[in-house]
Amino acid sequence: MLAKLTILDNLKETGKIGLEELSLKTGLLREQIMQTIQGLSKTYLINIDGDIVKWLPADNPSTIRPWGWNINHVVSIGSTQIAIRGMGLWSILVAEHQYSGRGRHGKGWISDLGGLWISYRLPVKPWVANVIPIALSIILIKIFEQIFGLKAGIKWPNDIVVNDKKIAGMIIEGEYVSDTMIVNIGVGINVNNEPPIPGTTSLKKIVGKLVPRNPILASLTGWISRLDKILIDREQLESMYRDHLVTLNRRVYVETLTEVFEAKAVDIDESGDLIVEKNGIKKKLNPLTTLRIRHLD
Predict the structure, then answer these.
(1) With respect to CATH, is domain 2-55 assigned 3.40.50.2000?
(2) Which has the closest alpha carbon to 254: 245, 246, 263?
(3) In its keyword annotation, does this UniProt entry include Ligase (predicted)?
(4) Which of 129, 133, 113, 228 is nearest to 187 (CA)?
(5) Structure pTM?
(6) How far apart are CA 14 and CA 263, in angstroms?
(7) For residue 123, cis peptide bond before it (omega within 30 degrees of 0)
(8) What is the Cα Rg of the chain in Å?
(9) Domain-wise residue ranges, the chain
(10) How far apart are CA 206 and CA 148, in angstroms?
(11) Using one digit for the tens of pLDDT, what is the confidence trace for 126-158?
């Protein structure tokens, strides 16, 4: 892993480097470098052309310059979601690897090489902040459809799935600075990585080949740049969210802060809470107090 990270770090700024120079910078033998590149080529659009190691610009986030944003691309970091807190507004942090990635409810997030692990920091109007998870779910659905022709769905509350396997997730955290609401949006997308957890998939597995990641990053950033405008039509967003929610009308296993049970998901309310029914009794599940939900059929 360390050799791979070191080579990525030497490649990210220029996108190419000679084998001899790379050997001197990394302290690795030529044969070791070639073996490491062979491993990297399974998850990155990286190859050796003669004596030059090249990283395809469309797969290297350091080549992106989104208007209005300050983008930071690092090879390895604890958690982008923690580090983004120290950055200015309209910042993006992209990491190739997180060794302490964070998911919902403090769960760990496996962030292996070849995926897209991104955090955004931006201001939003306070009264639309609670709609961001719904909007972001729809944005990811649209990206997968527009770029790859995939029909993705939403597993409540905001996991993105293809054929019932998770391909993307998010974590959204907010804070007030003076009278401004600031949100830190973390997004993880399985692109060319090989997720080790059962019930997950990646774009590489679905399309059968390596996928350049920058079109995804550019599209996502464009959508998030317009987030305030997207959030205006709350009714339409809620309708689209419901249409793509694959959890409805299925039996589910539920873990909350206080209980564990099985029930049937029958509806969602205007705030995005899931309504489940057990033994003829309906109850609401809130994302903040629901630790885990799993489809049983």
Answers:
(1) no
(2) 263
(3) yes
(4) 133
(5) 0.94
(6) 54
(7) no
(8) 20
(9) 2-55, 61-244, 251-295
(10) 10
(11) 888 888 999 999 999 999 999 999 999 999 999
